[in-house]
Amino acid sequence: MAFWNRRKSIDALHQASDGPRLKATLSWPHLLALGVGAIVGTGILTLIGVGAGLAGPAVMISFALAGLVCACAALAYAELSTMMPQAGSAYAYSYAVLGEVIAWVVGWSLILEYSLVVSAVAVGWSGYAVGFLTGLGIDLPTALTVGPHVAGGVVNLPAVAIIGLVTGLLLLGTRESATLNAVLVVIKVAALIGFVAIALPAFDAANFTPFMPNGFGSPSLPFAEAITGQPVVQTGVIAAAAIIFFAFYGFDAISTAAEETKKPERDLAIGIVGSMVICTALYLVVAAAAIGARPVASFAASPEPLALILREMGQGTAAQWIAASAVIALPTVLLAFLFGQSRIFLGMARDGLLPTSLAKISSRGVPAVVTVFTAIVVAALAGVMRLDELASLANAGTLAAFAAVGVCLIVLRLRDPGRERKFRAPLFWLVGAITVVGCLVFFFSLQARTQLYFLYWNIGGLVIYLLWSAKNARLAKHPEQAG
């Protein structure tokens, strides 16, 4: 069978793979905590300032738009993950529905997403950690706290260190790391609720005027900068939504835990949809409280905007508390995405698209080799890159994966309407269409160089696929498992 026609059987996804499987130790509270832990992080604690700088007070609309697209994607993920409870997430669904080549592109994009999310969050965590230590009178040298893009910077050592710490936790075992994650999520959500309680009394409606200083914005032509030779700078509500999109995703990490879930047919839908509902409501309230408390210009450029707002309100102790909670709890995002990244690698390795040595499972039931490998790569990126660059490029990978899931939802409903579905997304045409169209609009609202970097990444990936993966794929050797 030619590689461009290869498609994995959905029934084969339910069969045991070669070698040891991951241990089923998680239930829906663990998944809900994993989702909230992944979603609530650098996006709301740090990127709210970046988004406000692009859209002004209309960043509230940006949050709503990003939340709408992600909510539809979450519904699609919930249906597909309960049908195909495999570790590979969107990659596995694409393999079964759209074929091997598309699955490779999606998997390769997910590798980009998860790697850069971990790096971006580590950089965001470093900003809060350095600010927290400064508040205690401990000043770390610039050379060791920022990358070379800042004058005097060499390496962001705190970002590298936190990735190493979280990796060690993951190697202890899935249930152990999930339990600690749940505790840290409670701390993080409590901190945001505390911020709202302190900031709301200072609410000033005048801070919402002018509401939309940079307009609504619009997508640019695909790869416009490369075509025209002119720099393209995106601002406005859509551009902010494309960046703030980073603040919402993370629920897809839940789908990578499908194989480790005790009752995937029930628990995956609860975890995915539940975490999105909780986080969307929390984000809108926090954004409104932040803008109402201080003018956007006062915190748009800050690496720790919520703590800065509290300090400007004369709430130094509360600001220190917010910074401390971020330092303590932001690693939940690192944990969730490092967890998800290793499972994406695992799924691709099991299918022969990556070296099968990456699929080894340790005695504690975790993919130790690929977890350590992933940690080394993302730590190197976090040490030298800027937060906005990391977040923007991570968004590109996520948008590709989410769009593929939206397509998979529609195609599978039309191709195989009678197959059992433990969870059914309502109005599948509308849900799938909003997911796909929203992701395309957001992609072309990213900076032009981000689009180009994403294109280069996938061209390189396809070269690897054609030269090695297509010949070593499991379906190339076992065509009977094809759909």
From TrEMBL:
Keywords: Membrane, Transmembrane, Transmembrane helix, Transport. The keyword ATP-binding does not apply. It is found in: Membrane. The chain crosses the membrane at residues 31-52, 58-78, 90-111, 150-172, 179-203, 232-251, 272-293, 318-340, 361-384, 390-414, 426-446, 452-468. InterPro entries: AA/rel_permease1. It holds the Pfam family AA_permease_2. The keyword Membrane applies. GO terms for molecular function: amino acid transmembrane transporter activity. This is Amino acid permease-associated region. It comes from Brevundimonas subvibrioides (strain ATCC 15264 / DSM 4735 / LMG 14903 / NBRC 16000 / CB 81).
